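Mods, move this if it's the wrong board.
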Amino acid sequence: MKTLLGKKLGMTQIFTEQGAVVPVTVIEAGPATVTQIKTVETDGYDAVQIGFEDAKPQRVNKPMTGHFAKNEIAPKKYLAEFKADEGTAYEVGQVITVAEFEVGAKLDVTGTSKGKGTQGNIKRHGHHRGPMSHGSKHKRLAGALAAGTYPSRVFKGNAGPGRMGRETVTVQNVELVKVIEEKNLLLVKGAVPGNKGGIVRVQYAVKGQN
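Not the wrong board. Structure tokens:
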């Protein structure tokens, strides 16, 4: 399962050969460096660890400094792990680029959604509002959350006002429209989670997904 870490640059649109407009999100993906090969014998599971974007040495703590120095790799800001495909071998120090991805492939893109702060139940959960006429006294309130007699309490997890957004979100099966290797760019159809400049994880869609 090929995986890359990248940075969301924003949205734009491109035209197909037939003249149709396609909205795309531009992701600066990689290059990513393989920083560790994890095995069942040493770590309890098999995985490939990659690092994205160089970090200033003075901003890396001692354990991570030793981790990178052990393999003679420049410190990285962001790390991620993925399971290698059967028959595919990776080496520490190997560089993974957008050239690994094929146009037309289906991708899963994971990012952190935009934070909305504290919001009411209508915006947060899509609840209906009350009558908007004068004197209704119930326009955008949450309304009754529990019965008065039984159970006489509000169940844990009941939908209501609270913090909205800033959660890990994955959009599945988005189409890879274009690859610009010289600029390390992936153009995927539609929107992906997060702000401009936000870190996203791009990987081939899981087989069998709808």
